[in-house]
Amino acid sequence: MMRRAYGSVAIFAAAAAASAAGPATSYMADPAASRLEFTGVQEGAEFKGTFRKFTAAVDFAPDALASARFDVQIDLNSLDTMDKDRDQTIRGPDLFDIAHYPTAHYVTRSFTKTAAGYTAVGALTLHGVTKDVPIDFQFVSAAGKSKIEGTAKLKRLEFGVGQGDWKSTSEVKDEVKVAFSLVLKPAT
Fold this sequence. Notes:
Elements: H1 2-21, E1 25-29, E2 35-42, E3 45-51, E4 54-60, E5 69-75, E6 79-80, H2 84-91, E7 103-113, E8 118-126, E9 129-142, E10 145-155, E11 175-186
Antiparallel strand pairs: 1-4, 1-11, 2-3, 2-11, 3-6, 4-5, 5-7, 7-8, 8-9, 9-10, 10-11
């Protein structure tokens, strides 16, 4: 009987500690100060691209990972690789096909604390295909300002980004690196 009472007390204490953590804080990424970039390899040389338009709703607190959530919407037409011909090709039917798939969407499902920060797993919907993509990130909050910086890796062909001549990886590699920096402001 005594063991059962101690067990009940332990369960109650764990539940109280979890509820004391409270909900995650809700933020929106500041579009003017945030960035979302990718790096690809074309003909052996790296090139970078930036998405100029995206929104990120972030619910996060280091002590409330169970209620954390990132919801990111990306306007694929806002792509800028500093090369108009390449941008037009990437927006075209053989790669992003923005006429049919104008946006990408990423929503997290789970978070884990790591030695370097955090890892989240979420579903990325790109080119009509949804697949899990993990992200690694750090969260910094100081002097009333919060920021999330992180990276991810994905394979473009798993999302159907590469049709016709672009399905081959001899010109453009399959692996794509993503980097992001989200300057957060409280959601209103």
